[in-house]
Write a structure and sequence with these properties.
By secondary structure, this protein is an alpha+beta fold. Helices cover 22% and strands 39% of the residues. A 4-stranded antiparallel sheet has the order 4-1-5-6. The protein has a two-stranded antiparallel ribbon with strand order 2-3.
Length: 90
Amino acid sequence: MNNYIFLTNEGYTFQLNPHHDSFEEIENLQVVGFAVGNTPDEAYVNLLIEYPYLEETTFDMVFCYKLARKYEQTRKDFSLSSSFFFWSRK
């Protein structure tokens, strides 16, 4: 089994600007979750099972990397909204 991290660049993160005493939006990635599987697809299914609350978030596009030394070559993209639509019809 391989370990995968699932991320999204959707959503908002704010950081306090100490010079203006206000918050600024910053660009970053958010961790959606971790899952295991023999393939990215299997890990994605396990992610959906383990974190069913993801269906209620506004996140749609997520991607994963295998936690490995050469992780850059392991990226795979998924759509949460399409996945939950598919699962709910079963």
